[in-house]
Specification:
The protein has 186 residues and is an all-alpha fold. It is 75% helix and 0% strand.
Length: 186
């Protein structure tokens, strides 16, 4: 093992933080370059470098005499091995972009424009008062007591009943609209 490798190996056993910082400074640029040349990103390089540091640490604390090259070269070898393993595992997953490119959607797949009614349209059909009451309750988060006061209801119970009636109007319109399109399609 080279003299520099012995020093790094010894510092990994005694003062890990300093050794890891030194390895980051010395070896990470080469690792990032290698991962980039193999099609990886900066984030990929950081991930694989972290994994390689763990492998190196385990090797150095276990059998430091097994390292025959410089620590930086050894680390690069680990990175290359880990990257190839990761790439081999990732090949099992198929990109959906390639699959989606081969799928043709029939022209009649989407409903006609008039069938695409938004919730806001149903609320508007229920009437301005219902629309404002439901908006106050669901979107603005006002309590039923605040709604009763704002809309001039006699109490919370009246506000609750009115809210229920408004929801029923919207539900009925949605149901009627769906039945209309089921009859058109059938």
């Amino acid at each position: 093992m080279a003299y520099a490798s012995k020093i790094v190996a010894e510092s990994l056993r005694t003062n890990r933080e300093v050794a890891f910082e030194r390895l980051y400074e010395e070896a990470f640029p080469a690792v990032a370059s290698l991962v980039h040349s193999l099609g990886g990103s900066q984030l990929d390089a950081e991930d694989v470098f972290q994994d390689a540091l763990i492998v190196l640490y385990e090797k150095v604390t276990g059998q430091p005499e097994g390292i025959k090259s410089s620590v930086n070269s050894y680390l690069l070898g680990i990175v290359k091995h880990l990257w190839i393993r990761k790439f081999r595992e990732d090949r099992r997953f198929i990109s959906m972009n390639r699959i989606e490119a081969g799928i043709k959607i029939p022209e009649d797949f989407y409903q006609p424009e008039e069938a695409n009614v938004r919730l806001a349209d149903y609320l508007a059909m229920a009437g301005k008062k219902c629309m404002t009451l439901l908006e106050a309750f669901y979107y603005k988060g006002k309590s039923l007591k605040e709604i009763a006061t704002a809309f001039g209801f006699s109490g919370i119970r009246s506000a609750t009943v009115q809210k229920f009636k408004c929801l029923e109007k919207v539900r009925k319109q949605v149901k009627d609209k769906n039945l209309h399109y089921e009859n058109v399609i059938a």
